[in-house]
Amino acid sequence: MPDAPRADAQRNRARILDVASTAFRENPDISLNQIGKLAGVGAGTLYRHFPTREALLLAVYATEIDALEAAVDGLLAEEAPLDAFRSWSRQLAELVRLKHGLGEALATPSAQAMIDATYAPVTRAIGRLLDAAVAHGDIGPGADPGDILLLLSALWRVPSGPGGLVQADRLLEMVVASLPAADGRG
Predict the structure, then answer these.
(1) What sign has the CA pseudo-torsion 103, 107, 111, 114?
(2) What is the mean pLDDT of residues 35-58?
(3) Phi and psi of 37, rounded to 5°?
(4) pLDDT of 19 over the 90 cut
């Protein structure tokens, strides 16, 4: 059994991921060396953890998907279920819009395999949000999380900028309106 990474190695990896997440959002073309400098680690440390740009991008994306799935409980504790669904959907759209903005960097077979692996956590999160809305009496049962994810994909296809955000909110309201009615008539 391999030894667990040292505590400092774990901290370095976490710091690199945190810095890279922000850096890629601000500048998708940022170099790995620039990320290393921002994270306060040397090139050797950076490349030991992430030997390629693709490896770092994929690790950032996977970490963000995990955080998005974990955010469901907090959103449901703070907001009514349909509002939590709206908030979560906006976060998903922002994350996927970033991924689409990275284009060719995520167009490899290994990247596609990792992106495909995010389907289950995302649909699981959608299912939990929908179940909470059903339990709250906001919607009726029967909405398929995979279908809802497909509808939500319109949110990350809108143009960037304020006009795109307004359009995304209109589309999100159409998705919410398409959910089964609580009284069974929808």
Answers:
(1) positive
(2) 92
(3) -65, -45
(4) yes
